[in-house]
Amino acid sequence: MAGASSSSGGRFKYDVFINFRGEDTRRCFVCHLYEALKQRALDPFIDSEELRKGDDLSELFKAIQDSRLSIVVFSKDYASSKWCLKELAQILECMDRQRQIVVPIFYEVDPSHIRNLEESFAEAFAKHESNSKIDKKELESWKSTLTRATSLSGWDSKSKDYRDDTQLIGSIVEDILKKLIHISPSKTDGLIGMDSHMDKCLKNFCPEF
User: Fold this and answer.
1) Which of 59, 87, 93, 129 is catalytic?
2) Which UniProt keywords apply (predicted)?
3) Which of 4, 133, 134, 148 has the fewest CB atoms within 10 Å, i.e. is most exposed?
4) Residue 1 counted as domain residue
5) What is the mean pLDDT of residues 5-19?
6) How many domains does the structure of the chain reveal?
7) Gap between the Cα atoms of 201 and 109, Å rounded
8) Rounded CA separation 129/158 (Å)
9) Does residue 138 carry a catalytic annotation?
10) Which one, of 51, 127, 122, 63, lies nearest residue 90 by Cα?
11) pTM summary value
C-alpha cells in the first residue's frame, strides 16, 4: 500500500513507522508485529541498530515524515532512551502538521505510569535531569509529549481481551489496515469508480472492512 500521495502533494514511502526501544521489544513483540504488517501487504519501517548510534536522527526523522501512520510501542524502559523520546516528538509534530495517524501500544506497562511519570518512567527522567547535556526545555517537551501520546486511543497488552501477543498483534494489524484503508488516496483523488474498486480489492486484505 506504500506510495500513496501525501497531504503535501508528495509520495509517502512507508505505510507504518514503528517507534520502540530495541532492548525491550525488538526481538520479541516488535519483530513479530513487523512481520505481521508485511504479511498483510503493508510496507512498515523499522530501524536498524546502526541508525540508533550517535545523535544524528535525520534518517529516522525522514522515515517518520515519509510514513502515513506511526505505531509507538511503550515499554518499561522506553523513557530511558533519548532517541525514542526524540522520535516521539517528531511523530506528534507530523500528527499536527500532516495529520499522520498515531497508534500507541502499551506493552507490559501501565499507561498511568507514563502519564504521571511513575516507577521506571520517574527513574528515567531523574537520570535525564541529571544529564547536563540535555536541554531543560527539551526535557519538559518530552514530558508533555508523553502526556499527549498516552491520551491517544491505543492498545494495552495487559488487557484480558488478549490471551497472548499473537492475538494482540492480529487485532492491531487489522486495526491498522482499517485506518489506512480509510485514508486511501482513492478516497480523495476524484477518479470515478475507483472508491468501490479499491474497497473490493482491500477487502481481500481486511475482510471485516
Assistant:
1) 87
2) Hydrolase, NAD
3) 133
4) no
5) 75
6) 1
7) 37
8) 30
9) no
10) 63
11) 0.84
